[in-house]
Automatic annotation (TrEMBL):
One of its GO terms (cellular component) is mitochondrial membrane. Its main location: mitochondrion. This is HIG1 domain-containing protein. One of its GO terms (biological process) is mitochondrial respirasome assembly. Signal peptide: none annotated. Pfam families: HIG_1_N (PF04588). It is found in: Mitochondrion membrane. The keyword Transmembrane helix applies. Keywords: Membrane, Transmembrane, Transmembrane helix. Residues 1-93 form the HIG1 domain. The chain crosses the membrane at residues 28-46, 58-84.
Length: 93
């Protein structure tokens, strides 16, 4: 029983940073997608002041479409990268 208890405690010893680093190694385009989403939203908020005659709703729709498009693009590139790693780079037995 103590061996099982020691193994379960080692899972909780990991810090949040090490878990995030491990997940980023497994799927490197997820943090890129999150960062791109945040950057596009920040840019949209910055440009909100100088939107001119454009309605607020149109500006917000354009910003959300841009942010969602970046995330979908990052996911697509991540899937293609994963497929490349799995099928072409993986050593054949």
């Amino acid at each position: 029983m103590s061996a099982d208890n020691d193994a379960s405690l080692s899972i909780y010893d990991e810090t949040l940073g090490s878990k995030l680093a491990q997940k980023a190694k497994e799927a490197p385009f997820v943090p890129i997608g999150i960062a791109g989403f945040a950057a596009i939203v920040a840019y949209g908020l910055y440009k909100l002041r100088s939107r001119g005659d454009t309605k607020m709703s149109v500006h917000l729709i354009h910003t959300s479409v841009g942010a969602q498009g970046f995330v979908v693009g990052a996911m697509t590139v991540g899937i293609l990268y994963s497929m490349y790693q799995e099928y072409w780079v993986k050593p054949k037995p």
